[in-house]
Specification:
mainly alpha
Length: 75
């Protein structure tokens, strides 16, 4: 039971960490070599992911942020 309680916390931390990674990549898009139009699309996904994160919907948050990471080739 204790392990089951740890998973939502882990997902919460992963989504929050990934939000930070994507935000950093967008803010440094020139250095990250991300095209301006791609960065704009990533920003929309990032904003939606942040909204879902704040609402507590971590699965949706992670799905959206994974899309943004893929678009910008963010590790």
């Amino acid at each position: 039971m204790a392990l089951a309680l740890g998973w939502p916390t882990l997902a919460l931390a992963d989504c929050a960490a990934d939000i930070d990674k994507v935000e950093n990549a967008i803010d440094n898009s020139v250095r990250s070599q991300i095209d301006m139009t791609v960065a704009e699309k990533m920003r929309v996904l990032l904003d939606e992911a942040t909204k879902e994160h704040r609402a507590g919907n971590e699965a949706k948050c992670q799905d959206l942020i994974n899309q943004a990471k893929y678009m910008g080739n963010v590790e």
